[in-house]
Amino acid sequence: KAAAVAAVPDPVRGDEVLACVVTDHAFADEEARRAAAAELVEWCLARLAYYKAPGYVAFVAGLPLTASQKVQRGELKTLAASLVGQPQCVDTCSMKRRAG
Question: SS3 for 1-14, per residue?
Answer without folding.
Answer: CEEEEEEEEECCCE
